Prior knowledge:
The complex is a heterodimer. Chain A has an 8-stranded mixed beta sheet. In chain A, strands 8-37-9-10-5-2-15 form a 7-stranded antiparallel beta sheet. In chain A, strands 25, 26, 27, 28, 29, 30 and 31 form a 7-stranded mixed beta sheet that branches. By secondary structure, chain A is of the alpha+beta class. Chain B starts with a helix and ends in an 8-residue tail after the last helix.
Amino acid sequence: MHNTHPADQPDPSRRSGSIASALVAFLAMAVAILFATNVLAAGLLRPADGTTPALTLQDHEVSVVIEDGYAITTLSQVFRNPNPADLEAIYTFPVPEKAAVAEFTYWIDGQPVTAEVLPKAAARTVYEDQKAQGHETALAEQDSHKTFDISVWPVRAGGDVRIRLTYIQPAKIDTGIGRYVYPLEDGHVDEQKMAFWTTNSTVSGHVSFDLELRAAIPVEALRLPSHPQAVINRTPEGYWTVHLDNGPASAAAPTDETPTAPTDAETATPSPVQQTAFTLDQDIVVYWRLASGLPGSVDMVAHKAPGADRGTFMMVLTPGDDLSAITEGRDWTFILDKSGSMNGGKFSTLSQGVSRALDSLGPNDRFRLITFDEQTTDLTSGFQPAHPGPVAAAIATLNAVHPGNGTNLFAGLHSGLGGLEADRTNALVLVTDGVANVGVTARKDFLDLVRKADVRLYTAIIGNSANTPLLDGIAKASGGFALTVSNDDDIVGAVLSMTSKATHQALHGVTLTIDGVKTPDVAPRVIGSLYRGQQLVVFGHYFGDGPATVRLSGKISGQQKTYTTSFDFPAQATRNPEIERLWAYASIEDMMAEMAEFGETADLKSAVTDTAVAYGLVTPYTSMIVVRDEVFQTLGLDRTNARRLESETKAQAERAATGVQPRRVDTAQPMFTAPRATYSGGGSSGNGSGAMDPLSGLLVIGVGILLARSARRSQ
Amino acid sequence: MRTPWLTLIVGAVVVSTAALTGFAPDALVWDRGSLLAEPWRLVTGHLVHADAGHLVWNVAAWAVLGATTERLIGPRRMALALAAGIIAVDLSLLALPAVTRFCGLSSLLNTLYAVACLTLWRRNGGALPLLLLAAGAAKIGTEIILGAPVLTTPTWPPIAETHAAGLLVGLLWPWATGPQKQIYI
């Protein structure tokens, strides 16, 4: 196979951009279809056989602080038991993206008791023992990539229990737009679980969502696409705040607080919310738009306790926008999930999206449609020219498809990668909202498949609880990218994000080297490619302090490119202790990926468990357990996480008191010369200009000459 | 020869705005989401530019076309032509939902270009003004068909449809305003 990577093609063209834009618009439409019915949600689980009386969700309060490059989300919940017997509460919610759970607290006798991390089986044993003894206990577990499950015992007859859970995530900025998602909608991907449990997602009491964005660089606007009733304010310090609750809306969000391209729907007048029961079935998505024209930059947050030899750093590299747009006709293969989860009208809407995309292809483009459930079908019998006849025939065929059955993702990909022509530029677009549950499901086999093919794979991972680790790994192995999209994301934003990447060159084979300071344990170990607008977030440890030279290298269209800067690593830093957990999470991600590809080994499993226990993280191998204080002592459980949490809480209070501080470290020697990519920076971003060029100049000169001649005649 | 004051003033405003606010200032660009709350963007969007190249080309063209048109039809009529051009270009932008932000003077330059060519043709006759006009229209048409600028790659991609809107206003101008009573040459 000798296909040329589309991202390696130089020479900008708006036509190519419009085509890719339409194709990506199709992906976004695929997102829109998931507004369909049968939406599940976070909530209290209860056996579907009805053998257990129902608990109620009394209160659900969320507080988010985004500062210094990461978000801290705190969820406080109250469960109520209206029944005459004590009950166990089991609350489930989708795993937020790259979330490191830092705190789990259970109020016992009115006092908060924080959790400690144990290996999963040990934590479950402690929980069951305490439960059997009638003692108060609570457990936070992770069900693979799908859900966090919280168990609390007991919720006394006629009583309430209160819990609090805090998790930390790197703040996501892409093409100048920050994005935060509080996931609530279930991804509908675990059919066995769905068959066993029913979910009560209705909160009968108070629901609130408060977010504070403390940014060190200018933020122009902030917006919640699916929650127009949100009250958005800007504080005198320049911070942004968001408030949502299930009470009457006190004010409408100003209409100019729209960070992305506004649509007609965005101008709708917010409707007041009644004080009423609230259902946890809709993600809360928050966007914020950074000022345009900001320079590419290197930001760093470090933590190094006084007297410690080893520090931890989080480095965020935001490249300048020097990746050119690409052009030339391509062969587009659409690989479309038609498994059972696509039922309920979703697939017909998917067809409409394909239709729109195909209508926009250029005369030199070709297309192919492949659907998959447990089997694959090449609907177009190979590549067809993007001419009206073949396009109409393909759409008619697609409209006749009836979704159903399981998901054989491997077969779909295998079919999509077959039949490619080496002398054409190929691109694969995969849209799926589910998991690989039929046929080949091993990650290693997927990776081998795409690596052999040498074709970029662009993937839209739709909804929560999808197998993001697998799908993201496959896309990265191909040199492409995967985007996770909530059903409540702004469709325009999703289109802009994917378009700007698919239509520009990328920096491939990226490596980051740091000289001058010893920096072991860097995560991620393999970076892969950087597409337009993407940031590179790297964690690591460091020994010593002082000046270091940082080099970011990669290839653009086969040409080596290196960016260099120098700055100091601090001798001491205590403002951001949370980044130790973030480093641990990133390190565990690497190890989990290795296990997924090469199989679970005792060493790797032990390393994950040890790291998670040391840094207080809930993982598929570790859980957080709460017991009474005296039981912690009786069981000999060290309060490692409680001490870490105390340090983090103290730092958070200090940050709140001192305000934001700049994190940019390459000011003296900028690593990037161009401004960072934004949606106001051109391409097919939705921006435009009135611009003259040399040809226009010649015409203008012609008019000037005519005028001069006319003047001479007059004289 | 009369001094083209309107041309000089507008040119000075464009250059000094760039010097004071930088390129594509967020408070002044045409921004679809902010037009109701900040209607001045309907005008200021035409006066600000995305980068240095964008500014230099447009100001140079403005100097020639502005001075030419102002001498041909006078400052009042030229101001009216520009106002009509602004309305037409803004309407064209509103009709292009994919365009969310816009900046630059050249759509209005197309208005002046058409006004100047037609005025010269009506005054002197001959094919050259019409040929120049046809060449300009052909260039815009090519850009619309190709979906790409022919000879330029500014930071913000040119929107040929707005050039067409500006040119159209210029083409209608002589018929909308009646016979030219005064020649300012």
